[in-house]
Write a sequence for this structure.
């Protein structure tokens, strides 16, 4: 055990008992410890000395505390941070489970259904942070923990702290803020204005690896990898495995576009493209029939909703709206994933029609909540809201949609099923 660790154990002795090293990466060493006050296991991450010297204690603590404000089911929270024995550290929950990296190393690749579920959960975490002005900048399998059957994203604060301290490239250490195998072209080139779309690219890389068992690009050196991200076309997923669904390949290709303007503009859009298409593939019966049923339901309703927004009451009056979580009329928890797909489909189609729709993560707090429309609209700062309900039986799907203004004036409603569709105003 190093002298530095001995000093750390001594300095933290009144708060944490450090037990053993459980991991090490390019930026930090991780120790299993016990939080003496709360009697719980925690992970104490200690920055490499050269990074600590570059950051400085005050700046590190100030910047990483911003991440402590994040509270989301798919974000690993920050418990504590500070300086001790000349090193910088931060404390997070100790997660029982494994990282996505460990899972991929063991299994190679994952099934499409699980890939889409995990991608949606990771995207939900990213969207929540992006709405609060925080970009992760280091999305990778190592920073995704799998616990209790769900994905939890870790290390939001460290990438932000490093970026503020030294820009996208820390010249004092020679390290880039990020990991070359998952780094967007603009991040690889050291651009200062990296935004949420860089995380979308990194998530695209992670999804690519979950599907194929390998990262989009490989190289002998970090520089070679960065160059490939900047200039080379992404190898086709279906060329190596024709069984990969076409919609999945197309969504990943768009997420991995070289230009940020050509990608999904939000992580929620990427997730929406994946889960909406999954709904199409899940309705029972032959494939052509499955698509016909969904086109006759989701497609009709969404198209009608978009048309109604653009023609009824004048679009300028409703510049920003929210699609509330659809009600699951089946009362079957196993259908929740299907209902979620319908929710994403509605949001995605309206966004593609040019409507500003707030992210799904912002409205999930209202799921199963009985609260007045006017109050929800005020809290979300939107001009109008869409309510929906989903009823699925055998090969038929019925979706009802209601459109309300912030003042709770009903503008429009529709009910659509596999056999017929009607709309009322």
């Amino acid at each position: 055990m190093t002298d530095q660790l001995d000093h750390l154990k001594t300095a933290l002795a009144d708060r944490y008992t450090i037990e053993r090293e459980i991991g090490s990466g390019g930026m930090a060493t991780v120790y299993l410890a016990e939080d003496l006050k709360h009697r719980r296991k925690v992970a104490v991450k200690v920055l490499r000395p050269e990074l600590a010297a570059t950051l400085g204690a005050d700046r590190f603590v100030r910047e990483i505390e911003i991440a402590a404000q994040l509270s989301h089911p798919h974000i690993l929270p920050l418990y504590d941070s500070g300086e001790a024995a000349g090193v910088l550290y931060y404390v997070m929950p100790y997660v029982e489970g494994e990282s996505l990296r460990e899972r991929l190393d063991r299994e190679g690749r994952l099934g499409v259904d699980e890939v889409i579920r995990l991608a949606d959960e990771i995207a939900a975490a990213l969207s929540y942070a992006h709405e609060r002005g925080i970009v992760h900048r280091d999305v990778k399998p190592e920073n995704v923990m799998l616990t209790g059957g769900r994905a939890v994203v870790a290390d939001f604060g460290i990438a932000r702290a490093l970026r503020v301290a030294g820009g996208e490239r820390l010249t004092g250490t020679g390290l880039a803020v990020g990991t070359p195998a998952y780094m967007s072209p603009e991040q690889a080139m050291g651009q200062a204005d990296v935004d949420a779309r860089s995380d979308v690219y990194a998530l695209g890389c992670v999804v690519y690896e979950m599907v194929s068992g390998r990262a989009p690009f490989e190289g002998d050196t970090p520089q070679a990898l960065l160059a490939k991200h900047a200039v080379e076309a992404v190898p086709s997923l279906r060329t190596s495995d024709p069984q990969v669904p076409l919609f999945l390949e197309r969504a990943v290709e768009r997420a991995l576009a070289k230009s940020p303007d050509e990608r999904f503009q939000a992580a929620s859009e990427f997730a929406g493209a994946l889960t909406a298409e999954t709904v199409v593939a899940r309705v029972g019966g032959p494939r052509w029939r499955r698509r016909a049923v969904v086109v006759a339901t989701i497609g009709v309703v969404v198209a009608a909703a978009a048309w109604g927004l653009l023609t009824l009451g004048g679009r300028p009056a409703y510049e920003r709206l929210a699609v509330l979580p659809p009600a699951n009329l089946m009362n079957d928890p196993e259908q929740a994933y299907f209902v979620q797909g319908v929710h994403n489909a509605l949001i995605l189609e309206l966004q593609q029609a040019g409507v500003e729709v707030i992210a799904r993560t912002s409205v999930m707090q209202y799921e199963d909540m009985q609260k007045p429309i006017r109050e929800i609209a005020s809290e979300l700062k939107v001009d109008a809201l869409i309510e929906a309900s989903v009823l699925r039986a055998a090969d038929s799907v019925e979706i009802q949609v209601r459109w309300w203004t912030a003042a709770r004036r009903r503008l429009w409603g529709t009910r659509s099923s596999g056999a017929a569709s009607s709309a009322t105003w």
